[in-house]
UniProtKB/TrEMBL annotation, chain A:
Name the record gives this protein: ATP-dependent helicase YqhH
Sequence ranges assigned to domain Helicase C-terminal in this UniProt record: 360-512
One annotated GO molecular function: helicase activity
One Pfam family cited in the UniProt record for this chain: Helicase_C
SUPFAM superfamilies cross-referenced by the UniProt entry: P-loop containing nucleoside triphosphate hydrolases
Classification via InterPro entries: DEXDc_RapA, Helicase_ATP-bd, Helicase_C-like, P-loop_NTPase, SNF2-like_sf, SNF2/RAD54-like_C, SNF2_N
Classification lineage: Bacteria, Bacillati, Bacillota, Bacilli, Bacillales
Organism (species): Robertmurraya siralis
UniProtKB/TrEMBL annotation, chain B:
Pfam families hit by this protein: YqhG
The name this protein goes by in its record: YqhG family protein
InterPro entries, per database record: YqhG (IPR024562)
Domain of life: Bacteria
Provenance organism: Robertmurraya siralis
Length: 565, 266
């Protein structure tokens, strides 16, 4: 067989010039060093990973190294990385990109991620992998930089689109690739028309509903791997719910997809201890709560402000400060409030004034003293956050505030203060570009968000890779209030706290039923009786259980490393 | 490369370039750059341009490299250097750029009063890269005697045993080459190509098999679509497979030059 042999002539051209000009010639010591460098950077084996040698600060987990090795050695650089949430797909993709760059197989790489993650990806590649990745901001970036991170939505539009097609990318990485399940969309068409020499598709939920989705995803990566469209659908039922129906198909898919599960990684996850802390209102607090609840029967409230009443109820479970801020805003929002309305607000404000102590805060103080270790308190309300900071200080406990709106630098600073100087972090938000707080393992949910994903994000800050201790979660629930109902639903009916982070996402995405919070608002805001509320809650719980069972049956569908029964 | 090796390498590099090592302790070193090396490494053309225009006093930078964070004292601030750090690779590249071409004479130290003839050699250090969807490299060093055409392997290692100097030593004269440098380079090239063609090419055969397999899948994917409707995407995918798998070998020259050596040297 003949293999093309190319001989680089650029050196020789320079050499003849030097001879003609009689120099200048290089220095013998440097010449020897250059050969030393060459011998150190020559890679004399097709196999094996070089990247870890170049990344002494990074300690990849065994399963992450295994993935990188398989993609390079067995999958020829085209793969769907489908590890469960939280196992570090970004690290895997970074290792693979680094490996190819070290070996000189990839020079230009395009990384397409959701808009909210563009900066984070660019930062991680630069700081963790020493890959000079640039977040796309101006259109000239495409030509000037070799490694560019962008959102698909930007990339697919002109002028970017045309410029991108003129580049010769060696590797394309697409995060959240499950969004490309429909082959009729513009995004799909765009990715399909990119030249993909090497390609990584990252997704945590590769097989959601129909096998048509897996067909589209695999065909994007490796057209023909699952046959052509008509042959594929002839063989497999289009609406088949899972890959389990067909062993052969499953094997085919596993040739281009790697899916690690938590259980397979061999990483020891610490336990979670969940405790419900029942809170009894003081007499004054109870009176405020009752007064708010009674508004439901008032004509001028029921029709228009079910939502406001619920907000006030929830706030009354948190702090009088939270209620007060909302009351003030409600009054300010009305252009010309009726005397009756003003009177109602006034009455409530008086009840707020009458409250002398916060039962929850007192309980929290007692708990923090007993724990005698770092604690994170989550609350939904800024007013509560500020009150708690004051209250803890009065009682000699140091705390730092944390909000999602803080700039990156401030977030890191607060994290550091908490780690080194304060016992308590009081946070209003956990989501977004979060911080990792593995050094702490006690969480107090002072009040509950009605969006279970937010609750999961709260826990995810602490219970993640790197947490060495068991995690304790204390859920405060005031007796006889909406809070108690919601906690019951989340805790007992759908066992939220026993689920691993990411699992709920899987489940909810299967339901496609929209906003969980809206359901709760409907249940608590529009139920006319205790009985109706109970039925609606049971319905919601069984919907989620159903989705969970569906998921259970698919668990084995894409068994990467796990054994399939 | 171990951390001590890196520190030794950096020291050699800066000293070879005439920079003063201001401080060197276990785990770190501080070096005063020369103007040339500041321009080579620090990427601040505007500063130098400004200075040349205004005639100011040049102030090349001082750099501190930490090669071992545990050994270096805590108060030392500097760039942490390890095998993967971009700065080290920049210096690697610079080393190769600054020493791509050389001409040296053997410093034989014969004192007999007799004139010693030095024979011309062409020495080339090359990297041979075998590339498909994977890649491996081989380093080779060849020397070609430019009078009789003899080719020797591991030429660089032989040079390391000799005393070499950039100026022709006393009591020496150089013999004129019969083979011109241009044809010398192509003789070495032909020798390398012959060797490569003799080698086991299983890696390339397997790469072609992988390529063919994926190509067949691709054809099957598009087989129901009329030829003229397959369009750009199909051609694109085909090209992508070629880029991914097509085996080839690249020979690139790291550095090399002319060496005038005594008969007993090689």
């Amino acid at each position: 067989m003949t293999v093309e042999i190319q001989f680089d002539t650029s050196w020789a051209d320079g050499f003849f010039q030097k001879i003609e000009d009689d120099g200048p010639w290089g220095n013998w010591d440097l010449y020897k060093l250059a050969i030393e460098v060459e011998k150190h950077t020559v890679i004399d084996d097709f196999e094996g990973l070089q990247a870890p040698k170049h990344l002494p600060q990074l300690t990849p987990l065994p399963h992450q190294l295994e993935v990188a090795k398989r993609v390079v050695e067995d999958m020829n650089g085209k793969a769907i990385l489908a590890d469960e949430v939280g196992l570090g797909k970004t690290i895997e993709a970074g290792l693979i990109l680094k490996e190819y760059m070290i070996r000189g197989l990839v020079k230009k790489a395009l990384i397409l991620v959701p808009a909210s993650l563009v900066t984070q990806w660019a930062n991680e590649l630069t700081s963790k992998f020493y890959i000079p990745a640039v977040a796309q901001k101006k259109s000239y970036v495409w030509e000037q930089y070799d490694v560019v991170v962008s959102s698909i939505d930007t990339a697919k539009r002109n002028p970017h689109r045309d410029i991108i097609f003129q580049q010769d990318y060696d590797l394309i990485i697409i995060d959240e690739a499950h969004k490309l399940k429909n082959n009729k969309t513009k995004n799909y068409e765009f990715v399909q028309s990119l030249k993909k020499k090497f390609c990584l598709l990252l997704t945590a939920t590769p097989i959601q509903n129909r096998i048509s989705e897996i067909f589209n995803l695999v065909s994007l990566l490796k057209p023909g791997h699952l046959g052509n469209e008509s042959a594929f659908y002839e063989k497999y039922k289009r609406d088949s719910r899972s890959l389990d129906d067909n062993e052969h198909l499953k094997q085919l898919v596993n040739k281009v997809m790697i899916r690690n599960r938590r259980a397979d990684t061999g990483i020891e996850w610490t336990d979670r201890h969940v405790e419900t802390i029942p809170i009894e209102f003081s007499q004054e607090e109870q009176q405020l709560y009752d007064a708010i609840s009674e508004l439901r029967s008032e004509d001028n409230w029921m029709a228009t402000s079910a939502f406001s009443i619920m907000t006030l109820q929830r706030e009354a479970c948190s702090s009088r400060e939270a209620v007060f801020v909302t009351l003030k805003n409600m009054l300010a929002k009305q252009e010309s409030p009726s005397p009756a309305y003003e009177q109602q607000i006034q009455t409530l404000a008086e009840k707020v004034q009458a409250i002398q102590r916060n039962s929850k805060a007192e309980k929290a103080l007692e708990l923090i003293r007993n724990i005698d270790d770092k604690v994170i308190i989550f609350t939904e309300y800024r007013a509560t956050q500020m009150y708690l900071q004051w209250f803890l200080k009065q009682n000699g406990i140091t705390s730092v505030p944390f909000r999602g709106g803080f700039k990156r630098g401030k977030k890191d600073w607060m994290r550091e203060l908490f780690q080194k100087h304060a016992q308590v972090l009081i946070a209003t938000e956990a989501g977004g570009e979060g911080i990792n707080l593995q050094f702490c393992h006690h969480i107090i949910n002072f009040d509950l968000p009605w969006n279970p994903m937010r609750l999961e994000q709260r826990i995810g800050r602490v219970h993640r890779l790197g947490q060495e201790k068991d995690v304790h979660i204390y859920n405060f629930a005031t007796k006889g209030t909406v809070e108690e109902h919601v906690l019951k639903l989340l805790h007992e009916k759908i066992s939220l706290f026993e689920k691993v982070v990411g699992e709920l996402d899987d489940i909810l995405s299967k339901l496609e039923f929209g906003n969980f919070e809206d359901y709760l608002i409907d249940i608590f805001g529009h139920s006319t009786s205790e009985g109706e509320m109970k039925i609606k809650m049971d319905n919601l719980a069984s919907m989620i259980q159903f989705a969970e069972e569906m998921k259970g049956s698919e668990t084995n569908a894409a068994a990467g490393n796990s054994t399939v029964s | 490369m171990q951390q001590q090796e890196i520190q030794r390498f950096l020291k050699n590099y800066f000293q070879a370039n005439g920079c003063e090592i201001i401080e060197e302790e276990k785990g770190y070193m501080t070096v005063q750059l020369t103007i040339e090396l500041d321009k080579e490494l620090m990427n601040r053309p505007f500063y130098w341009h400004y200075l040349e225009k205004t005639g100011g006093v040049p102030n090349p930078m001082k750099l501190t490299f930490i090669t071992n964070q545990e050994a270096a004292p805590e108060h030392i601030k500097g760039e942490v250097i390890h095998f993967g750090s971009p700065r080290l690779h920049q210096i690697f590249q610079s080393t190769k750029n600054l020493a791509a071409y050389i001409r040296l004479y053997e410093n034989h130290r014969f004192t007999s009063g007799q004139q010693v003839p030095l024979k011309p050699w062409l020495g080339l250090n090359v990297r041979i890269s075998y590339q498909c969807d994977r890649k491996r490299d081989v380093f080779k060093s060849l020397g070609l005697q430019l009078i009789n055409g003899q080719i020797v392997e591991n030429f660089h290692d032989r040079l390391l045993n000799l005393q070499l100097t950039p100026k022709i030593p006393d009591y020496s004269f150089t013999l004129s080459p019969l083979i011109m440098p241009k044809s010398g380079v192509s003789r070495i090239k032909n020798q390398l190509v012959r060797e490569i063609e003799q080698e086991d090419d299983n890696w390339a055969v397997e790469a072609r098999e992988r390529w063919n397999k994926d190509l067949q899948l691709l054809e099957h994917f598009y087989e129901e679509i009329e030829v003229d409707e397959k369009g750009e995407t199909y051609e694109n995918e085909k090209k992508a497979l070629q880029d991914q798998y097509e085996p080839n070998v690249k020979i690139s020259i790291v550095n090399g030059g002319l060496f005038y050596l005594t008969d007993r040297a090689v």
